[in-house]
TrEMBL record:
Spans annotated as Disordered: 22-50
Annotated ranges, domain Alpha-D-phosphohexomutase alpha/beta/alpha: 65-211, 237-335, 350-456
Entry GO MF terms: magnesium ion binding; phosphopentomutase activity
Matching InterPro entries: A-D-PHexomutase_a/b/a-I, A-D-PHexomutase_a/b/a-I/II/III, A-D-PHexomutase_a/b/a-II, A-D-PHexomutase_a/b/a-III, A-D-PHexomutase_C, A-D-PHexomutase_C_sf, A-D-PHexomutase_CS, Alpha-D-phosphohexomutase_SF
CC cofactor: Mg(2+)
Record key words, sorted: Isomerase, Magnesium, Metal-binding, Phosphoprotein
Protein name as catalogued: Phospho-sugar mutase
Species this chain originates from: Streptomyces calidiresistens
Length: 578
């Protein structure tokens, strides 16, 4: 209660002040009449309810942890929620970190043409609740600390922010977004001057400075601070995006596109128009940004039902492809026609799109290193080796992939692709959409499709089939219990195959930094188990490899792969106690 009252006294936001005052009042009523006070609605999971004192305890029992994903959490009052107090403190810690790195920084905005001008921080935001407010608070703190803050001109995709950092020679960037999380969430993603997201030890260094921030009254926040960039930064991004395509490549593909109520729509449509593709048909019900995401349960193209409206539009328009962005447009989802399915379309898995883009770049003669996250399929590694190209695995996340030396292409199975690392050192759903459309256009001209190329890859390198066992929990301790159980009693066989190697990724495996995860290598595949870094989920990544030498044998190989994946899911769930 004391912590809650202290927080209330310095909270600058009327909405969260009112929310917190209501909780304090209800908690006081509970104390006065323990049997008569009504429960307050909880917010950790939809539909739950708990007493006000328990809700306060949940909100003030710790802090929202600042890590390599920056900050991400549910909106609301208190240190374990996303709110203006948390954002102002995070911005003050980041500014202190940048000042320490740059040495003495002159007070005030400075002269950006002067070699002694203060470091620049570029700030972007999406269309979620409170995103613009958090962005403007960040700009005010940055300027108040004697640094220069520049804001993107409007809600824009995350890759535009990542591009702008390098384009402007900034020292850091901040993107206010929760990507594909539920509507009640928001987040705070931090980049350094190389255009990549922070990794250790920068995250811990910034977190230490956040912890050292005193009362908010001592954090200068000049009103209206920060410079607003013009549309020229979007123009520069779009010009760069077009360079991912070969000048003479076919552009005849027709696309139905959905931004899933996010900020990708105008940028994706304009990128396609400038590239010379037919203008995408945008799913009307999901075309405009809406922080409530009213037509989907989760604004993530991987979630069941998220693509229903896109498929309905596609049945009317009969395009060649369906493409979707997640709400901040750093991910790209692709669906292909499939007459065997009721909806008439099949979503390609992230690993399939990752392999298709790799094949496209290899066949175009791309040099440099190919990379994938350790939880992604091993197919691209086999493709790279066959092409005589270097390949690297990294930990999950583009904060690691973007730092691979000599990177030409990187992907992760969660629909993230980097096809232009010199322009955007992060996943970019806009340029990935252009590249997959270019590939599909060339195949269409030859009377083929994306699935035909996937068949070719299976015949050349073996059928690589992947799937996930993903368990969302209300009680985070269940994730820790499952990981402990697997560590103490690791499985010796999975889906009838002996586990040839069991590795604890906390120890650092195959040259990777330590991380919380487990890996089981089988003769015909592998399994990786890890807690999600952004959601209350335990994720298990499954892969099986089935040799196949003739096109006629592909259906049987796919059936066999499906059987093995089903067996893997069952065996792993039992081993983890899920």
């Amino acid at each position: 209660m004391a912590a809650a009252r202290a927080w209330l006294a310095e909270d600058p936001d009327p909405a969260t002040r009112a929310e917190l005052a209501g909780l304090i009042g209800a908690a006081e009523a509970e104390a006065a009449d323990p049997g008569g006070a009504p429960d307050r609605p909880g917010t950790a999971e939809e539909g739950t309810a708990r007493p006000a004192r328990a809700e306060l305890a949940a909100r003030f029992s710790g802090t929202l942890e600042f890590g390599t994903a920056g900050l991400r959490g549910e909106l609301g009052a208190g240190p374990t929620r996303m709110n203006r107090v948390v954002v102002i403190r995070a911005a003050a810690g980041l500014a202190a970190y940048l000042r320490d790195r740059a040495g003495k920084v002159p007070e005030g905005p400075g002269n950006r043409d002067d070699r002694n001008a203060p470091p620049t921080v570029v700030i972007g935001w999406d269309a979620r609740h409170m995103s613009e407010r958090f962005a403007r608070d960040t700009a005010a703190v940055v300027v108040g600390a004697g640094l220069r803050a520049v804001l993107l001109p409007r809600p824009l995709p995350t890759p535009v922010l990542a591009f702008a950092i390098r384009r402007l020679g900034a020292a850091a960037g901040v993107m206010v977004t929760a990507s594909h999380n539920p509507p009640r969430d928001n987040g705070y993603k931090v980049y350094l001057g190389d255009g990549s997201q922070i990794v250790p030890p920068a995250d811990a260094d910034i977190a230490a400075r956040i912890a050292g921030v005193g009362p908010l009254a001592g954090v200068p926040r000049p009103e209206g601070a920060g410079e607003m960039l013009g549309e020229e930064i979007v123009e520069a991004y779009l010009e760069r995006a077009g360079t991912v395509l070969a000048p003479d490549s076919p552009r005849g593909i027709r696309v139905v596109y959905t931004p899933l109520h996010g900020v990708g729509g105008p940028v994706v449509v304009e990128a396609f128009r400038r590239a010379g593709f037919p203008e995408p048909v945008v799913v009307a019900e999901q075309a405009e940004p809406d922080p409530d995401f009213p037509t989907v349960a989760f604004p993530n193209p991987e979630e069941p039902g998220a693509m229903d409206l896109a498929f309905a539009t596609a049945r009317r328009e009969r395009p060649d492809l369906v493409i979707a962005s997640d709400p901040d447009a750093d991910r790209c989802a692709v669906a292909v026609p499939d007459a065997s399915r009721e909806e008439g379309w099949r979503m390609l898995r992230g690993d399939e799109v990752g392999a298709l883009l790799a094949a496209h770049l290899i066949r175009r003669g791309a040099g440099g290193t190919l990379a994938a996250s350790v939880v992604s399929s091993s197919l691209v590694e086999r493709m790279a080796r066959a092409a005589g190209l270097p390949f690297r695995y990294t930990l999950t996340g583009f904060k690691w992939l973007s730092r691979v030396e000599g990177l030409r292409y990187g992907y992760e199975e969660a629909l993230g692709y980097c096809v232009d690392p010199e322009g955007v050192r992060d996943k970019d759903g806009v340029t990935a959409a252009l590249a997959i459309a270019e590939l599909a256009s060339g195949l269409k001209e030859a009377g083929r499709g994306l699935t035909d190329l996937l068949d070719d890859l299976a015949l050349e390198h073996g059928l690589h089939a992947t799937d996930q066992l993903s368990v969302r929990v209300a009680d985070l301790s269940l994730i820790g219990s499952a990981m402990t159980r697997l560590r103490e009693t690791p499985p010796t066989t999975l889906a009838g195959s002996p586990v040839e190697r069991a590795a604890d990724l906390r120890d650092g495996v195959d040259g990777l930094p330590p991380t919380d995860g487990l890996r089981y290598d089988l003769a015909d595949g592998r399994v990786i188990v890890r807690p999600s870094g952004t959601e209350p989920k335990l994720k298990c990544y499954l892969e099986v490899v089935v040799p196949v030498t003739e096109r006629e044998g592909l259906p049987a190989a796919r059936a066999e792969a499906g059987r093995r994946l089903t067996a893997l899911r069952g065996d792993l769930a039992e081993a983890a106690g899920l």
